TrEMBL record:
InterPro entries in alphabetical order: Homeodomain-like_sf (IPR009057), RD_transcriptional_regulator (IPR051839), Transposase_8 (IPR002514)
GO MF annotation terms: DNA binding; transposase activity
Name of the protein described by the UniProt record: Transposase
UniProt-listed SUPFAM superfamilies: Homeodomain-like
Species whose genome carries this gene: Bacillus taeanensis
Length: 95
């Protein structure tokens, strides 16, 4: 019987790093690389605990957190502007 393709460890680690850094769907990466989707899930499970891959994962987590905080800041600034306008409106004395 013929065995499936063999990939070297570096390729596996780089592929997992690519998936985690870019938050790409596994199915999309499977189509791009020609690797079976289930194989990629196995690689993620195996290699996501390694320090260099974990660093990539942490980066994407902090990137997502930064994005969420920027959105929250923008919303709060808009609310602040609305409150300032309301304050000026109610502070005017009737003539």
């Amino acid at each position: 019987m013929a065995k499936g393709k063999r990939y070297d460890e570096t390729f596996k680690q780089e592929t997992v790093k690519y998936i985690l850094e870019n938050n790409k769907p596994v199915a999309q990466v499977a189509r791009e690389t020609g690797v079976n989707e289930n194989t990629l899930h196995g690689w993620i499970k195996k290699y996501s605990q390694q320090p260099e891959v974990k660093a990539a994962q942490t980066f994407s987590d902090s990137d997502a957190e930064l994005k969420a905080l920027k959105k929250q800041l923008r919303e709060l600034e808009e609310e602040n502007e609305i409150l300032k306008k309301a304050m000026h409106y109610f502070a005017k004395s009737p003539r």
